[in-house]
Amino acid sequence: MAQNQETVALVDPVDAQLAAYNAHDIEKVVMAYSEQVQVYIFPQKLVCSGREELRNIYEEIFRVSPEVHAELLGRQIKKPFIIDHERLTGLQVDGQSTSRESLVIYRVETGAISAVWFLP
Prior knowledge:
The chain is an alpha+beta fold. Helices cover 32% and strands 49% of the residues. It is built from 3 helices and 6 strands, in the order ααββαββββ. It has helices at residues 5-23, 26-31, 51-64, and strands at 33-41, 45-49, 69-78, 81-93, 96-109, 112-119. Strands 2-1-6-5-4-3 form a 6-stranded mixed sheet. The protein is globular and about 45 Å long. It starts with a helix and ends with a strand. The relative contact order is 0.20.
């Protein structure tokens, strides 16, 4: 499926944060999000608000899980939303390395991720 410029612009920040996440580059991860980003566990449980809270969460993930890696398994696009099926590996939970799959909904506005919903 060919992507037009509008679709590419919509997808760019989501792809950028995924690449930065896998490189454990906290600065590039955070820059893919808007200053007022809201992150939720679906449907409404607010996890964090704003880039600084987001930075703190990802710094802790990378510290505790130095081998964490996200793989994109599938994607649906419905402007302004990107719905990704992702697999996380190397995530440390209670001292054990785990893997899990989840759906993640990203809302992209003005070239940045403005909201995220993680479906458990």
